């Protein structure tokens, strides 16, 4: 009976995923908030249905009632969060909200499958992050002076990265975290937000060549500290994001092309300077040359993807635990093995639609500062998704980057939700401007003579 339910649920979960993916692009057809809200309600229903099937399988396979309790807490919280966010911000983007809930809930499902204790920690951090996102849009809407703090963002960003470089803990060849008692933080996840705000603030004040040089020098300092910490994955995310932001700000393609050339030279230099980069490149070229050693992780990732096939083996039917760090850097491989390549392709398309939605909000903004902020944050998420999936599928050398909202990692989840909160703030800001323009267009303007008469009467 358990095998039958597992087999049926495997196909149902795939169908739900395909439907959600279709709706994720279908909702972009019209720029009508009410119409989009109706579509998003269907998406949310699919999210809870997918969650229900997933945790049903986990319970049947483990017979652990704690999993059912954990599932119940999630359903209650996500419903409360969705209703609360809509109540506080009636004009919010339901598309972004539904995608946030979907990706985070899918990540919790996979982490529960891999490590239940860590899933509980991830959920606790996610609850805190969701509560923070209730405040972020209001800050973005009302604190218009954020565009004036360019050097504050630079000092904070470079300072935090320097502290990690000097005192941070080393993990897998890179200095990533700061330990504050029982809590371990990865500051580079949060500095990428201040990095985007710094760049936007600088170019808001002007786009001259001299300003571009100064901004590039400070941005380069961020990247160089990350390189010195051997956190090359984060350095690449910062670098690519800056190239796109400087192009959006100045509209000069030669800045972008020159940056790519400099990046290529820097990549060759990093290959010769850092031994672990040489190892990753060698394992990317042929992970089976050292299968029992340094190529084991990537080789197991490829085995997992191929064994899953198009339809997957089903939850709890594969062996994702054989992949080192499957819950972090290689969670996409675990998804491919147990949920299937079609499911994984849909996930990639959902991320693509999600990033396009972020880009759409940024192009909607009139003020250059907000346009660059939205565009830069969207590029950061897009590059992070590409580096993760490209690394685990052997498209590019592995960089150790997490998959946003899905991989285990409190700092990554918190920073990603803050980014989405910022984009929601931009959306609400523009929505209010549009409504104000429409209101003024509908209301007849009071004649000048009547206004003067009222003034004399008073």
UniProtKB/TrEMBL annotation:
InterPro entries: FtsW/RodA. It is a multi-pass membrane protein. Signal peptide: none annotated. It is found in: Membrane. This is FtsW/RodA/SpoVE family cell cycle protein. It comes from the Bacteria. GO terms for cellular component: cell division site; plasma membrane. The chain crosses the membrane at residues 12-28, 44-61, 67-84, 96-116, 122-140, 152-172, 223-247, 253-274, 340-361, 368-389, 401-423. One of its GO terms (molecular function) is lipid-linked peptidoglycan transporter activity. The lineage of its organism: Bacteria, Bacillati, Bacillota, Clostridia, Lachnospirales.
